[in-house]
């Protein structure tokens, strides 16, 4: 993406934020859990009074220099207020199961986030008193402001010698093995007990009895099916061997194979077992070896299905057992998530068999994740059928709440301004129950630079952070209506297993014939994983992709580039190649110099745009840090740069059309702490509407005042005196 418009500094400054009419904390219902625990009704999250709850959330981590997973107590109120200001109503506490930070390595830019585990012991079974106190205090501050908590149990835990875990010194992150390792399962339960029965003195309740804890997640991005399909069950991992990818050690490979043969003996007849041995080519009394990925295509159906059924049983027993332990033994009242569908390049149907036994089904997807796609820098609006919307929609199950607990357009991507409005709009259209962005990293006062510090952190991003408010209005309020029609698909048990032998070209749905564009036109759900398969689907239609409510349109053009329009009563937006496409919505017309940008217009009161008194206008394009240097292909930042972060200001005009009765309009540019930049700008009345000029004062956010009376004019004047 090349531009004629010079970049300009724009610093997000949470520490010095001032009260502002751009604040959307009015969307939150404080305190969180005031009337009791979040529940499930008719397949959706609801408050005790039956009112829907849509989660607009962030993950909380602390990877980068100057960041912290758990802010110090003196800063916790500031960060809780900051999250509320942007309409964020739930925080997913990620990586709590890591050790506390070592001061000797705290200056490393990619230091591990400091978790709860006390690093001073030879085991990982004790909490650090200061860290657990920070968690307690921050959870209480979040609760005061109407922000719920999502507690993750097993994310990145490593073990020490004192934990008594076989091969403790070989494995870096315990995944896969957590389903079968007896000591590992015991440690997971002990950790859950210690955390969830911990008494928080600031909320005066244990976490298991705390209604502000909306969700507890058992494991993060972890599945035996993923390991099987990625050939990570080989048992070849050694202490001094390469650590290019995950794998089992020989100890856990033997245990898994022994479990498989024991399961066969308990779930197959003697004749069946003998036939499976013959198919596997082993002696009548020998163990049946497990299949490797390279054997899938030629493996006999009965043998392949037997092993797949075994993994399904192991995962189901683990998750059902953990859920029972949490809810029945510990008495946890929060809703339970098992694991996220996080691997859209492999089929999800096998893993979802266990996940549908949980309270909530969950998904993760990133647009061009650097660890998956490597170096990419292209717009999603040009590729709707491979969009995050299409990939995420594959996981939603009829009758179950669906949340997206990780999503992002990782940096660098010059088109990232498309992410939040598109995701929020389609998330509401699909009637999902929650979206958590990865990630938000609280910054220590005086110990951080004002720039975007890594691929995922949105905290100081002058586009993504500002757009969080718009997303909350689109998704949580919600301004976008749910789909009128739901397209369902059903699978037989055999079809679920055989999905793992389909070619990569079948992704992301691994359902031959399914029109993936359906997710851009209608709601999409899985109806059954244990029923009659859906045998036929209508052919997919070419774009434009029009939502069946008429509020969202995804226009695709090789000549002009992609464009998404959002046209609702209270929020309207143009996302993508606006200049080339020359489209408008009911109340918003745009004439800008920028090749690619995103412009949104939202009512900040309960009224439609046409009758609103105060509007939030965001105008966003690309960002870089000062000193950023791209590689030759313009796909990665060879030099990440330093502060301050720079924006490409959106320059040109917007015209607000078909408004009811304003006699004056004032446009107020805001800086990164919500302070007005200069005096309000007067709108110009034209025959077609009110023209507002953008870009003269570099920013990504504006407040628009539609003045209809002398009294209102005086109030606006007084606000900015």
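^ Assign residues to that structure.
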């Amino acid at each position: 993406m090349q531009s004629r418009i010079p970049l300009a500094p724009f610093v997000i400054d949470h520490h010095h934020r001032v009260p502002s009419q751009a604040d959307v904390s009015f969307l939150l219902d404080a305190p969180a859990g005031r009337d009791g625990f979040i529940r499930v009704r008719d397949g959706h999250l609801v408050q005790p009074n039956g009112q829907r709850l849509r989660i607009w959330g962030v993950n909380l981590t602390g990877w980068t220099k100057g960041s912290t997973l758990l802010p110090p107590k003196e800063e916790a109120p500031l960060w809780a207020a900051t999250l509320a200001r942007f309409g964020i109503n739930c925080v997913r506490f990620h990586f709590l199961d890591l050790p506390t930070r070592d001061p000797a390595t705290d200056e490393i830019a990619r230091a591990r986030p400091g978790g709860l585990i006390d690093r001073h012991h030879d085991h990982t079974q004790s909490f650090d008193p200061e860290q657990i106190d920070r968690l307690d205090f921050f959870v209480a501050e979040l609760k005061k402001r109407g922000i719920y908590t999502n507690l993750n149990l097993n994310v990145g835990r490593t073990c020490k010698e004192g934990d008594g875990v076989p091969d403790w010194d070989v494995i870096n992150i315990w995944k896969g093995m957590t389903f079968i390792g007896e000591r590992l399962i015991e440690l997971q339960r002990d950790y859950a007990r210690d955390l969830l029965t911990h008494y928080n003195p600031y909320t005066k309740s244990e976490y298991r009895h705390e209604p502000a804890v909306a969700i507890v997640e058992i494991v993060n991005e972890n599945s035996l099916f993923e390991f099987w399909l990625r050939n990570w069950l080989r048992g070849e991992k050694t202490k001094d061997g390469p650590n290019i990818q995950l794998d089992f050690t020989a100890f856990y490979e033997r245990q898994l194979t022994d479990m498989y043969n024991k399961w066969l003996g308990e779930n197959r007849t003697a004749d069946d077992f003998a036939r499976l041995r013959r198919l596997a080519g082993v002696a009548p009394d020998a163990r049946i070896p497990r299949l490797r990925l390279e054997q899938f295509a030629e493996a006999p159906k009965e043998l392949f299905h037997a092993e797949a059924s075994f993994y399904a049983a192991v995962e189901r027993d683990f998750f059902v057992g953990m859920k029972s332990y949490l809810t029945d033994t510990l008495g946890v009242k929060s809703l339970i998530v098992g694991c996220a569908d996080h691997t859209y390049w492999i089929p999800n149907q096998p893993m979802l068999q266990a996940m549908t036994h949980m309270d909530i089904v969950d998904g993760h997807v990133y647009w061009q994740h650097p660890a998956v796609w490597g170096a990419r820098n292209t717009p999603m609006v040009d590729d709707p059928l491979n969009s995050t919307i299409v990939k995420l929609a594959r996981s939603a199950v009829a009758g179950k709440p669906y949340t997206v607990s990780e999503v992002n357009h990782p940096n660098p991507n010059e088109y990232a301004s498309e992410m939040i409005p598109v995701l929020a709009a389609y998330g509401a259209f699909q009637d999902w129950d929650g979206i958590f962005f990865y990630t938000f990293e609280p910054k220590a006062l005086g110990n951080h630079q004002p720039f975007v510090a890594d691929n995922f952190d949105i905290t100081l991003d002058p586009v993504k952070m500002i757009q969080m408010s718009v997303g909350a209005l689109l998704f949580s309020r919600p301004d976008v209506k749910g789909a009128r029609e739901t397209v369902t698909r059903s699978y037989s048990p055999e079809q679920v297993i055989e999905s793992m032998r389909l070619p990569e070209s079948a992704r992301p749905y691994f359902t031959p014939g399914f029109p993936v564009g359906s997710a851009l036109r209608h709601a999409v759900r899985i109806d059954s994983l244990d029923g009659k398969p859906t045998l036929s689907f209508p052919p997919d239609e070419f774009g434009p992709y029009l939502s069946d409510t008429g509020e969202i349109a995804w226009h695709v053009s090789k000549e002009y580039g992609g464009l998404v329009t959002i046209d609702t009563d209270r929020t309207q937006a143009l996302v993508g190649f606006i200049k080339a496409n020359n489209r408008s919505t009911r109340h918003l017309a745009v004439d800008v110099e920028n090749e690619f940008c995103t412009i949104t217009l939202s009512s900040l009161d309960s009224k439609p745009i046409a009758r609103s008194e105060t509007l939030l206008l965001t105008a966003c394009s690309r960002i870089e840090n000062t000193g950023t240097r791209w590689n030759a292909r313009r796909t990665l930042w060879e030099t990440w740069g330093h502060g301050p972060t720079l924006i490409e200001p959106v320059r040109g005009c917007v015209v607000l059309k078909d408004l009811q009765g304003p006699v004056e309009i004032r446009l107020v540019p805001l800086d990164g702490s919500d302070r007005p930049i200069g005096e309000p700008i007067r709108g110009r009345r034209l025959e077609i509407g009110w023209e507002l000029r953008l870009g003269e004062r570099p920013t990504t956010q504006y407040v628009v005042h539609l003045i209809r009376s002398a009294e209102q004019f005086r109030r606006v004047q007084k606000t900015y005196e």
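The CA atoms of residues 180 and 259 lie 9 Å apart.
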